[in-house]
């Protein structure tokens, strides 16, 4: 894999997009692949893989923030597609994504992500960081304060109310994913658990379907603009797919309580990292 990567043209030689960033070394590539593997596992279990993968890309010399975001989407869509397929094949019937929630949520999320991606190169992500941090703190407090939240499915909305809520959540979180990204999977899981009443395992399976749509929506904008580093993204996609498959199988085997525990750890890590960003400690 590393030998093949060494033969690919760099971003500097091919304009704003390309195959690999000019400052990439074999050692850095190995670290990126390990980050993609870990991100795939985390993202498959509970979302939030961008916490690992996107910051790793941003550390590469010569890569622009929008290139990092676009390449992260390419790697991410591979992993989320595999983990979504794994959930659909292996979860019990009662834990499968409900079509009345997954379909409208995914469709609106795709459009929202495309809109967010269109703004990504013009709106500084730092402007959103304090708002995202505040939302994550609320999510963390609610889940900790309600230890039985998400253990079982308890449908709160039906009919058009359920479809409308799913579509609205999809549009809002899709736009956030296209614009910034990290924490989207965790927000999706929490919305599905807290608003629609799904159990954590079922919410995670549904979130993977929606996450495929958000990644696709962003890529439909980033790719024509030439921001995707295709060679690096393809290599990271292989690692992300492996992590995604292993994470999905782990979550299915361990159930909602395990997913809830990982959710708390990931959201806590997101709060710490974004808090450090806001305080200027990174």
TrEMBL record:
Localization, UniProt: Cell membrane
UniProt keyword Transmembrane, yes or no: yes
Transmembrane segments: 100-121, 127-145, 157-176, 182-201, 229-246, 258-276
Superkingdom per UniProt: Bacteria
UniProt keyword terms in alphabetical order: Cell membrane, Membrane, Transmembrane, Transmembrane helix, Transport
Primary residence: membrane
Pfam families: TauE
InterPro entries linked: TM_pro_TauE-like (IPR002781), TSUP (IPR052017)
Signal sequence, renumbered to the chain: none
Membrane topology according to the record: Multi-pass membrane protein
Family in the record: Belongs to the 4-toluene sulfonate uptake permease (TSUP) (TC 2.A.102) family.
Name assigned to this protein: Probable membrane transporter protein
Annotated organism of origin: Pseudokineococcus basanitobsidens
């Amino acid at each position: 894999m590393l030998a093949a990567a060494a033969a690919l043209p760099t971003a500097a030689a091919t304009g704003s997009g390309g195959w690999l960033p000019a400052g990439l070394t074999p050692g850095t590539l190995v670290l990126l692949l390990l980050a993609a593997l870990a991100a795939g596992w985390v993202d498959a279990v509970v979302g939030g893989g961008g916490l690992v993968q996107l910051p790793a890309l941003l550390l590469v010399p010569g890569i622009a923030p929008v290139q990092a975001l676009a390449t992260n989407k390419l790697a991410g869509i591979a992993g989320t597609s595999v983990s979504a397929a794994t959930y659909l094949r292996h979860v019990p019937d009662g834990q499968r994504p409900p079509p009345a929630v997954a379909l409208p949520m995914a469709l609106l999320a795709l459009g929202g992500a495309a809109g967010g991606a269109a703004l990504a190169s013009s709106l500084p992500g730092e402007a959103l960081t304090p708002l995202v941090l505040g939302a994550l703190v609320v999510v963390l407090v609610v889940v900790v304060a309600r230890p039985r939240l998400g253990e079982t499915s308890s449908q709160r909305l039906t009919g058009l109310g359920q479809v409308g809520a799913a579509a609205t959540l999809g549009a809002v979180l899709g736009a956030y994913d296209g614009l910034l990204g990290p924490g989207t999977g965790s927000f999706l899981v929490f919305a599905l658990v807290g608003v629609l009443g799904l159990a954590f395992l079922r919410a995670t399976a549904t979130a993977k379907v929606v996450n495929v749509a958000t990644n696709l929506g962003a890529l439909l904008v980033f790719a024509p603009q030439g921001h995707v580093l295709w060679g690096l993204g393809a290599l990271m996609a292989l690692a992300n797919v492996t992590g995604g498959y292993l994470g999905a199988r782990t979550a299915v085997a361990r159930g909602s309580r395990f997913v809830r525990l990982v959710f708390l750890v990931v959201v806590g890590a997101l709060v710490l990292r974004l808090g450090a960003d806001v305080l200027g400690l990174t």
